[in-house]
Amino acid sequence: MAWYNGVHRRQERLKEGALSVTESTIEETKKQMRMQAQGAMALNVAFIGVVNGLFETVCRLGSPMADEIAQNLTLDRGYVMRWADAAFAFGFLDREGERFRLTEKGDLMRPSHPQTLMPVAVGSVLSTHMADRAAELMHTGERPGEKVLGERKNILPWFGAMLEANFSGLFEREICPSLSVFKEIDRKGGTVVDLGCGNGWYLRSLARRCSGIRGIGLDGFEENIRRATQLAREQGLSDRLEFRVGDIKTFAHGGPVDMIAMNRALHHVWDEKETVFRILRDHLAKNGAVVIWEPAWPENPVDLREPRKRPLAVQNLGEHVQGNHLLRPEEIAEAFREAGMTPEIHLFSEGAEAVVVGRIA
Ligand SMILES: C[S@@+](CC[C@H](N)C(=O)[O-])C[C@H]1O[C@@H](n2cnc3c(N)ncnc32)[C@H](O)[C@@H]1O
User: Fold this and answer.
1) What is the phi/psi pair of residue 258, to 5°?
2) Separation of 313 CA from ligand 1 center, angstroms?
3) Which of 50, 251, 263, 355 is most buried, most CB within 10 Å of its CB?
């Protein structure tokens, strides 16, 4: 009760104007933090709706009752009713009596919406998972590696779709049109290899844009290759795209390759960067290019305060758990130079994303 009384007294005095500037700033900060906590709650509610198909089902059924949603998805009625209340509270659903309908915000949470906000919800719960793991592992210094991603069976299947939804728009709208390397590959055609291809979205996007290319995607995770192969088939691209399970550190291909891409994969194999850059250089055709896309860890840590770069610091904590760390674009450029290649750094998303293009010097 003492705590309650303390807060209550403070609120009364604040109303009377009896608190100092510092005290009223503290009140304001508390209010802001509570609102931020509500933002996290909203994303938790959205996450449940995404991974259990609730948003898509409400959309399909129009204005169902919670019972109908539960029946349709063979989920427990009690849980669905509580979820619907929470989704209503946070503005994802509107309600009329017992019936629910998607709001505009709820509609944007549908994974099949072209502008879906699904990655924000999945990313938020992934951050929470990583924060919990980091808090525990900080006691021992253990870094269990990438298997940590698989510890949440609801998150893993959404990982590829989350990356695709987060980055394919940036690639298609800004990166592709502004870098000459993509115009060259479109003009010349040839073989493009994507190392650490995930669900294969990058090769699919490139193959749609450049009709003269053939693509080979490599990933160490079998499930990614299965999914990449399936999506290429569904999109009518399987005659030009092939996906294989394999390790980037031992990649070998019979002939020269016109373009080698690595998206958010280099920091996973940075511990063997000399081997990886030798493989990249040795496989590259004479006028080819290696195109490496990574989150751009800033040179100056003060930049981490910039809203667009703040998430990098949280990602890097999660990368630490996985045994990795984010890279400064200049470190990548230096690795190209050491391998006898000439790098060019291009920054996007207010400097939070780097594409480093390397060519044989
Ligand atoms: C952050 S994901 C990026 C996936 C994809 N490039 C994208 O942009 O959506 C990193 C990928 O690299 C793969 N990977 C990590 N280390 C690898 C290795 N040694 N060999 C092959 N794939 C690897 C992971 O399985 C994962 O799919």
Assistant:
1) -80, -30
2) 20
3) 50
